[in-house]
Design goal:
19 helices; 6-stranded antiparallel sheet; 8-stranded antiparallel sheet; 610 residues; alpha/beta
């Protein structure tokens, strides 16, 4: 992994490849490269570091061609070296880029070495290039060589291939990793993300599992897993170029934090227009699917998992339905007790998270076919594999550390909880009206929380020299403490952990001293007095606390207790509003420490490998 772009046209495609790779930088990467077919053969340039460094090298070497592929790599097999960077070339004739992991690469490597192939990298990807070249050498056309080679691969892949012996076409294939085809006039494209090609075309085809495709300047042909011609729907992308531009913001993360009022308003628009919670918000057939479920199973990874943990409190409190939340990478490898009547909810910003997709497949294989996807990317793999879908309308999220995707996921999950409560007769008209009114006021409440930024900047300056931090929360705010700790460690590289505040005395209290700042989520709810007791436990050990409270929380700042208050308590939606301050704290601490906020080390935006 991490990003693929390719183009075939009547014009020079090198600028298209470079621009596409820049659009894909948000996904996280450690090296970049392009390969093109010129009259003299396949030519390649690769560099570790940023796309800009590779761009300078390509310009210096005079790269120009009408057929080419490009890649940003996030290292899995082999270190961060130029030799391991993509594209990989076989015998100077065939070039390939690849996202994913080939699980049987060692056996294939041994076989290819025996056939006389020499390997120049430690990657699993080079195996694919040599395997396709091997079948080309037996007389197969490029498309047929790719189709035969991929049948022998175990694992996940999205690949694009070019060959100097066939300079009028490009071939692509996918299993488990996203890949799409872009349709132009006299030119066509491939990409792992529509953002890479949106300046050239908005007409795209999402390749399905097991598809291969052959692209020329004037045609695109798609074939299914069995090699038969397949018709795939053409979609018109609504991704805006403005959403992909930084504008006046310093970082995409900053831009996206401040876009949350708009993202939330867009996500709840259908609910507001409907003026009611109802199954129709989740798509055709939702009333039948949701009518008699007796449990909810949520599957997700990372930030989306914390959204699921928050939803468990809402679903059980409002709807009275048991709710389990599993990390997708754990769920897919344990023996689950299947329940055909439970609703399986998968949460993924990209809709392509491999572990979540595989967990969904596993759940369905157990006979659990009541499935709902909460996702930010229309027509991505997970929604296509689910019966019901609720799209969060957050817009493009470029920063690796998720912000607006998380809060819009919370809105979607709260809508689900309220809808289930209504279907089960647990939400009367008066309570429904109260919840709808709270949802309407949510964007404004989030804007009020954003206005706390100057105070949080002051805290960040004191936080920046620290190397460890502890986050505490209780009840529905414990997952927000988890999310705050995750954000801080993701982008500032400060080690941070989160605990339910009641667990403090069962171990974490041993860590508390003057060098360990403790962040407390303390809204004015039924657990506030319990949280105040936990604060006293920290204070007695000399710890310094940073408390995010409500205006009416009724406790004040002191020498060891720093307090920032949100303007007002928003009740059951408080977790969404209290997410904003912990995002801002992480951002400004990272800013003070001088880290690469949008591209934190070792991380990728869309995790399409195990």
């Amino acid at each position: 992994m991490c990003g693929i772009v390719g183009a075939i046209a009547d014009r020079d495609v090198v600028p298209v490849l470079i621009e596409g790779l820049k659009r894909l930088e948000y996904r996280g990467y450690d090296s970049a490269g392009i390969a093109v077919v010129e009259p003299a053969g396949v030519r390649r340039v690769r560099r570790t570091g940023r796309v800009a460094e590779m761009e300078s090298a390509a310009a210096g070497e005079g790269f120009s061609a009408s057929l080419g592929i490009g890649h940003t790599r996030w290292a899995t097999h082999g270190g961060v070296t130029e030799g391991n960077a993509h594209p990989h070339i076989s015998h100077g004739e065939l070039a390939l880029v690849h996202n994913g992991i080939i699980e049987n690469h060692e056996a294939q490597r041994e076989r290819l070495v025996a056939l006389g192939y020499a390997f120049e990298s430690q990657t699993d990807t080079e195996v694919i290039a040599h395997l396709i070249h091997h079948y080309r050498s037996q007389g197969l056309a490029l498309l047929q060589a790719v189709q035969k080679a991929v049948r022998e691969l175990h694992g996940a892949y999205a690949i694009a291939v070019i060959d100097k012996r066939d300079p009028e076409r490009m071939v692509a294939a996918r299993v488990g990793c996203p890949l799409l085809l872009g349709l132009g006039d006299g030119e066509n494209f491939i990409a792992s993300d529509v953002s890479a090609i949106v300046s050239s075309t908005r007409r795209v085809i999402f390749m399905e599992e097991g598809d291969t495709a052959e692209l020329t300047r004037d045609s695109v042909r798609v074939f299914d897993l069995d090699g038969r011609p397949a018709e795939r729907e053409v979609h018109v992308s609504d991704v805006s170029l403005a959403s992909l531009e930084l504008g006046p913001s310093r970082h995409f993360m900053q831009k996206e934090i401040h876009e949350q009022p708009r993202a939330l308003a867009d996500t709840i628009e259908a609910l507001v227009d409907n003026n009611a919670f109802g199954p129709e918000l989740f798509g055709a057939g939702a009333a039948e699917v949701l009518a008699d479920i007796d449990a909810v199973q949520i599957l997700a990874c990372g930030t989306s998992y914390y959204a699921g943990l928050t939803a468990r409190y809402w679903i059980e409190a409002l709807a009275g339905i048991p709710c389990a939340v599993d990390i997708a990478s754990e769920y897919r490898y344990r023996d689950v007790v299947a329940n055909p009547r439970q609703l399986v909810v998968t949460i993924s910003q990209s809709g392509e998270t491999l572990d979540t997709m595989e967990a969904l497949k596993y759940a369905k294989a157990q006979g659990q076919d009541r499935t709902l996807s909460i996702c930010n990317v229309p027509e991505s793999a997970i929604p296509r594999a689910s019966r019901l879908v609720y799209y969060t309308r957050a817009g493009a999220e470029i920063g690796v550390a998720s912000t607006k995707a998380f809060t819009t996921q919370l809105v979607a999950l709260f809508t689900l909880a309220a809808t289930l409560a209504k279907l089960r007769g647990r939400l009367n008209d008066e309570r429904e009206a109260e919840l709808l009114e709270a949802m309407r006021h949510l964007p404004g409440s989030v804007q009020h929380a954003l206005n706390l930024e100057p105070q949080i900047v002051t805290w960040a300056e004191r936080f920046a020299p620290k190397e460890h931090a502890l986050f505490l929360g209780r009840g529905v705010h414990y997952p927000i403490a988890l999310e705050g700790a995750l954000k801080l460690k993701e982008i500032s590289y400060i080690h941070a952990e989160a605990y339910p505040a009641g667990e403090l005395k069962h171990g974490p209290l041993a860590l508390v001293d003057a060098a360990m700042p403790v962040v407390v989520i303390a809204p004015n709810d039924s657990l506030l007095e319990k949280v105040k007791s936990n604060i006293q436990e920290v204070r007695a050990r000399g710890g310094e606390m940073y408390v995010f409270a409500d205006a009416d929380s009724a406790f004040g700042a002191s020498e060891q207790v720093n307090v920032i208050r949100t303007p007002r308590n928003v009740g059951i939606l408080s977790p969404i509003v209290h997410t904003i301050p912990v995002q801002l704290l992480a951002y400004h601490v990272a800013l003070a420490r001088g880290t690469d906020v949008d591209k934190p080390r070792n991380l990728a935006k869309s995790v399409t490998v195990e």
